[in-house]
Structures are given as structure tokens and as C-alpha cells.
Amino acid sequence: MKRNGFALFCAAVMSASLIGAMPVSATDPENPESMLYEDLNYDFQEDGSIIITNCLQNAVTCEIPESIDGRTVTAIADSAFSECYFLEEVVIPDSVTSIGRQAFSACSVLKKVTMPETVTSFGAGVFDACSALEEVTLPGGIEELPQAAFYECTALTKVTLPEGLTTIGSEAFYNCAALTELTLPESTDAIADYAFQGCEALTELKLPAATVNLGQYVFQDCGSLEAITVDEGNAMFCDKDGVLFTADGVTLVRYPENKAGESYTVPDGCTQIANGSFVDAVKLKSIDLNQATVFGRDVFFRCTGLESLVIPEGTEILSDSMLAYCSGLKSVTLPSSLTMISDYAFYTCAGLTELVIPEGTTSIGAYAFFNCMGMKKLYLPDSIEELGDGAMGYYAESEDTEPQKVSGFSVEYGSNQVIYDFVKQYDLSGTGHGEFPWLTVLLSAGGVLVLAGGIALIVILRKRAYTPRPVPGGRQGSASKRPDPNKKGKS
Predict the structure, then answer these.
(1) In this structure, are residues 184 and 160 in contact, taking their beta carbons and an 8 Å threshold?
(2) Domains of the chain
(3) What is the distance, to the nearest Å, from the Cα of residue 39 to the centroid of all Cα atoms in its chain?
(4) What is the DSSP code string of 401-461?
(5) How many whole angstroms separate alpha carbon 201 and alpha carbon 269?
(6) How many other β-carbons are positioned within 10 Å of the β-carbon of residue 279?
(7) pTM of the model
(8) Which residues contact residue 236 at a Cβ distance below 8 angstroms, ignoring those fewer than 6 apart?
(9) pLDDT of the chain along its 491 residues, tens only?
(10) In the 8-state DSSP scheme, what is residue 480?
């Protein structure tokens, strides 16, 4: 029986209409292993759920569905929305529980992200370089804010962190220059290295009682930071007038860059200064180190306002880059206990004109006084045993230019072969000489005398060897007194 042609036509039209009105999933022709749903690519996970793997780059807004073809959307893959340069808003459904590494990285106009409470994990760099993102509320299920989570989100002004968050990863808020305030949940027990580096607008931060693990350089480049306060119940840290210390007061951990005042005295009982403690504290002109004798690296790095410093007796080592880029430093007094000046210790201290290194110092590290363009005299003791590459007497206008000699620079020393060789190697001016030159002369003269004495002794001995000696029991005296052998009997 023949089918009615008109009926078939109508059926085809109705079918096409229904298909056009419903969401359609299909294979992405550019990626046959991935399925396509509107502006999204997706794939199936082992448990049958769906993970969003990609988004069309020209998408402006995106509302991720809870399900596709009856399967639940539970995850957003690594880099799924990365470099979607036109994307302004994303709505994530309640079905999603995890968001992968750099999922929204470099979405440069993304302003709003709506996340459900069901999300419990983020990958590293999840909002990396979302430079238009202004405000974010993190879901309550997040326990760890990963590394570089909001890296260079330069417009970010407010982030609401959930109670239950325990860890803030390294560089989590790196260069979030507009972030003015942040409240850490009471549950926060660890803050990793560089977590708030470059948060230039942040004025104050309070560490809760639970925070007992603090990484290095956490507050570096926080130029507006006036105070770091600590909950009284914290067993690891405390604050003294807005300066962060270990709870026992022995170690100064961090001095806020924008703390008021041009001078500061380290309190009694503090004997150690941690790595990078005073980095960029440009307001300070003088620091009384009091009882502090142990210093981490980069302690006074770029303290450009610092004019003078007395290093206390008992200090044995000036650490790596300890006073690097202290361009305003004019006077430093070093202790007699000093034994070592480490690499880059006075790098680019352009204001120093002369410095006396105390007797007992045995080592000066590489580039310790490099770029000290105002240095005219450096007094070195004869106790020096090691001088690192480029330790003194040279500067460079940039990293790309060849080093040049500092005009008028001179090394003042007595008698030391290491210094003498260094001066010769780098073609510097120096007042001393190599090791024990007078002793060498004396030893040479002594050698000549010994040789001459040896020769004289040999001559004497040879002469004595040819001199007749009396023979015991034999005849003695002159021939005239000897008996005539031809006569018989006694004489």
C-alpha cells in the first residue's frame, strides 16, 4: 500500500520543529571524542555522570545545565573555560561538586560566578588572571583554597571565605591589588608561601587562633599593610603593636610595610629575625636590633629609607641579601664576632662609601658588595680566607650590560694572599700584598747562610780528614829524638 505523500511531509515538518525546540547533544566535529551541547563540550565519566570539558570561545553568558540527556553534570574539567575572552557570567548548578585546574583561567572579562554549596573542591589556578572579577563567595564545602586560586585577579575587592576552610594555598591571592579587606575563618590553620603577595590595598589582617602554620613571604609587597594582629588564643604566634612574632617572642616574623613611624626597636627577648621580615619597610630610617643576633635571608631587602644600622655583638653571619637594595644606607657598624658575609649581603647599597670588615671575618660571598657604586674604600682583615665571584669593586647598569669597575674604589688590607689574588684577578686598586713577603726574604737569606755554612763545614771536615793523627802506643816527636835503628841495646 502506498503512503500518503502529504502525510509524510507533515510528519517531517513536525519532527524538524520538535528537534529545533529541544536541546540537542551531538559529537563535536573538531573533537570526535567529546559531545556538544549548545555552547559546551562534555564527556562521560566512569560513573556515567557528565563533565564539562570546553566552552565555545565566543560565549558571553553560560548557564551550565544540571543534566544532559538524562545524565547528571557533576564536574568542570581542567581549563574548561580557559581563555574564553568574551565570557562575562557563569552559573554553576547544584549538581556540580568539583571544578578543575585553571577552569576559568584568563577569562579576562568574567565579572560574576554563581557557585552552589555543593562544590567541595577547586583545582589550582581556578580563577587565575580573571582580571575583571570583583566579588566571590566561596561555597561552604571548600576546605582548601588551592595554589594560585585568584592569581592576579587585579579587580577583586571582596572574597567571602567559608567557615571550614583550613588551608590557603601558595600565591592564592597573588597580586590581588584591589583587595582591601579579608576575614580569615576561625578554621584556617595554614597559610602557604606568598599567599597574599602583591595585595597592595590590604591594610590589616588578623590571624585566627587556629593558624599555626605560616609560609614564607606571605605578606610581601603588601604596601598598605599597617598591622598584623593575632587572636590571643593562638599557640604559635602573637603580635606586638601590630608586628608579628612567634608566641614566645623569640622570633620577629613580619613587620608590616606601611606601619607608622620612622624608627623601630626590636623588643627585649627577640634574638632572631626571620626571612624577609622587613622587606619593603621603606618608611623606616633606623632600626635598633637590640638583642637580635640571628638573621634570615632578605631581612632588610629593599628598605630604601634605612640610613644607618648597628649589627649587635654576637652576630656571626650576615645572611644572603640581608641588606640588598638598601640604597639609602650610609652607615653600618659590624660586630667583632662576625665571621661571614653571605652572597649579595650588601648588593646595590649605593649610599655606602666605606666599610670596615672586622678581624675574624673569614668569608665574603659572591656579589656581596656588587653595585655599591658609591663605595670608595673597603677595609678587609688578614683573616679573610674566601672571596666570592664579583664580591666587590664592580657594578652593572642592567642585567644585560657588562660589569664595570667602580670609579675610585680601593681595597685596604695588609698581608693576605687570597685578597692579593682577588685584587689582581679583578684589576682593582689595593694597598696590601701577598702572604708573608718579609718572611720569604728571611727564609731565602737563611737558606743562603745555611748553604754557605754547609760548604764551610765540608771544607773543614775534608781538611781534618787529611791531617795525621797520633797513633796510640806509636812513636811521637821529631826524627832527631828517635833511637838509631843500627845501634843495639838501649840508648
Answers:
(1) no
(2) 261-447 (3.80.10.10)
(3) 43
(4) S--EEPTT-EEE-SB-HHHHHHHHHTT-EES-BSS-HHHHHHHHHHHHHHHHHHHHHHHHH
(5) 32
(6) 24
(7) 0.81
(8) 211, 212, 213, 214, 246, 247
(9) 333 443 433 444 343 333 333 333 444 444 445 689 988 999 999 999 999 999 988 899 999 999 999 999 999 999 999 999 999 999 999 999 999 999 999 999 999 999 999 999 999 999 999 999 999 999 999 999 999 999 999 999 999 999 999 999 999 999 999 999 999 999 999 999 999 999 999 999 999 999 999 999 999 999 999 999 999 999 999 999 999 999 999 999 999 999 999 999 999 999 999 999 999 999 999 999 999 999 999 999 999 999 999 999 999 999 999 999 999 999 999 999 999 999 999 999 999 999 999 999 999 999 999 999 999 999 999 999 999 999 999 999 988 899 999 999 999 999 999 999 999 999 999 999 987 555 444 545 555 455 555 555 554 545 554 444 343 443 333 334 334 444 434 33
(10) G
Please give the C-alpha separations between residue 20 and each of 6, 14, 24, in angstroms, as whole numbers: 21, 10, 8
With CA atoms as reference, report the closest residue to 136 among 167, 170, 172: 172
C-alpha 365, offset from chain centre:
17
The answer to whether the beta carbons of residues 51 and 79 sit under 8 Å apart is no
Task: Locate the DSSP E strands across 283-328.
Answer: 286-288, 294-295, 308-310, 317-318
Closest by alpha carbon to 372, among 342, 418, 404? 404
- Is 14 in a helix, a strand, or coil? helix
What b/e readout covers 458-485, taking b as 16+ CB neighbours within 10 angstroms? eeeeeeeeeeeeeeeeeeeeeeeeeeee
Grid cell 554553576 in the structure block, residue: 92
Number of Cα atoms under 13 Å in the Cβ half of residue 349: 32
Question: Rounded to an integer, what distance in angstroms lies between the CA atom of residue 25 and that of residue 352?
Answer: 72
For residue 446, which phi and psi values (nearest 5 degrees)? -60, -40
